Amino acid sequence: MTQRFKITVEYDGGPFVGWQRQPNGPSVQQALEEAVTALSGEEPFVQGAGRTDSGVHALAQVAHFDLEKEIASDALQGALNHHLKAWPVSVVLVEAVSEEFHARFSATGRAYLYRILNRRAQPALDEGRVWWVPIKLDAERMQEAAQVLVGHHDFSSFRAAECQANSPVKTLDRLDVTRQGDEIAVIAEARSFLHHQVRNMVGSLKLVGQGRWSAARLKKALEARDRTAAGPTAPAEGLYLTRVTYD
Amino acid sequence: MTQRFKITVEYDGGPFVGWQRQPNGPSVQQALEEAVTALSGEEPFVQGAGRTDSGVHALAQVAHFDLEKEIASDALQGALNHHLKAWPVSVVLVEAVSEEFHARFSATGRAYLYRILNRRAQPALDEGRVWWVPIKLDAERMQEAAQVLVGHHDFSSFRAAECQANSPVKTLDRLDVTRQGDEIAVIAEARSFLHHQVRNMVGSLKLVGQGRWSAARLKKALEARDRTAAGPTAPAEGLYLTRVTYD
Lengths: 247, 247
Prior knowledge:
Shape of chain A: globular
Oligomer: homodimer
Distance between the termini of chain A: 26 Å
Number of helices of chain A: 5
Largest interface: A-B, 26 and 26 residues
CATH architecture of the largest domain in chain A: 2-Layer Sandwich
Order of helices and strands of chain A: EHEEHEEEHEEEHHE
Strand content of chain A: 25-35%
Number of strands of chain A: 10
């Protein structure tokens, strides 16, 4: 009899090609699958809630897998973390769940944080953890314009060419921009996102922050339903998957 | 004619032997002095407000130096940061000051933050930036006991053997312990500190947090005026110099 486990995982995306296993480099999924195999001898598929891109971080990615080995959640967490020591990946929570739980399909919400370091001086402590933007950004202006994107829209203008979603129509529940000292935080919440959607929205909001775009221009970009109408993609290093919600 | 400059510096202490130049490895002071020389051809001594130990970080260390080269503060900041790119050191502010300003002797206060990650799972994103303590600590108990140390005391029990201060008597203005989620922050403020004082106080507070020591036991350690009566030294990687105050 197998037991399904739900795990909550923190990682530094820097050294990885992303969440998903790929032939061209180490992935978070592979690191986790190898840790599971090392402790159990089994080779389950570790299913993530979402595929973070290369360089994208997670405070609380969620995944699930099935084990035949009988093991308590606490012991499983300790063993996973022991076998993950070579990687900047840490399993912060392990829960035994019913086999109806699916990390991806049961998820009802996802939250991301995008961190911008907005000061003249480059980051010393947060190198690789923020997007460094040395030109002054107006966070209030960004916050006001961001509300244009909140709601039920066709987000084709903010969708990567490789996006595999069936539809470009999504409901964006929250897009908040706040400044604290030199740091600007963008918080995005939705049931699900298109590929690169958060980074593409942030790339356009940055144009608003530096005064090159108005909120009306951002609205026009959304309505164009054309990737070339919107701003560039913000770098991966500022993005964090912070929460996956289940009912 | 020379001009004195006050600089505010952020750094990751990880790759350094500490603030001060030493023959056994790279120091923050050396990185800064070499950057000054690269941009000016001059070889001034860069005087820091305090000497952080190997591995200790700074959000806002303060230093000063004199230059004969005529250069505006903004241009100096840009040039310093350009020449510091090889190091996790960033000059966040440059101010032209009178020659009466002295980074060390004019300072009237110093503030430190000590970060403890208190959860079972090792840090993934904050590796090298926090002290990971997997056993549960009671932050409220730590906060209560910490108040024993606040005030004017002989801190010999929390002083490193190599400390060069004239007197072990200091006034600790603030020692606050707070928990936010899995992280415990200890904030310490004083006019000045003894060598290792913050790390030694944190090492003892950790014993209080895990229930091994009472506040009374901590008071006894203070009153013993003997380093061996107090707890072990907390690791450098959790410590940040966060502020130096001038009148």
